[in-house]
Amino acid sequence: MVLFPEKFTSPNISIGYYGGSFYVDYANDIKKTRCLIIRLFPFVVLTFLPIICILIFNSYIEILTKISLINGMLSCRDIFSFFVILKQIPKGASIRNKGDVTYWR
Q: Membrane-crossing residues (predicted)?
């Protein structure tokens, strides 16, 4: 939500729960670069940050390990869509999602 172009209170930003996981959706166009960052941000924060914390504090923290593993498995759709957007959408394009469909111009 922090990475979207509008404020959190915008009517264009919605939070939902679907298929066993939470999601945040933005109803307007966003640039390709920002879209790619938005796709990877939850994966990086919730998968790699807990691992880094475990390494820094040099101790096994079970909840961080579980968060990291579960998010790593549940992020496959975000990672897949990241690579589809990266390879198939031209540089500088604007992107809009409507449900499971992604449009660009």
A: 40-61, 67-86
DSSP secondary structure letters along the chain: -TTSSS-TT-TTEEEEEETTEEEEEE-S-EEHHHHHHHHHHHHIIIIIHHHHHHHHHTS--HHHHHHHHHHHHHTHHHHHHHHHHHHHS-TT-EEEEETTEEEE-
d(CA 46, CA 70): 9
Distance CA 2, CA 24 (A): 11
What does the domain layout of the chain look like in residue ranges? 30-104
pLDDT digits (tens, 9 = 90+) for 27-62: 889 999 988 998 898 899 899 999 998 899 888 888
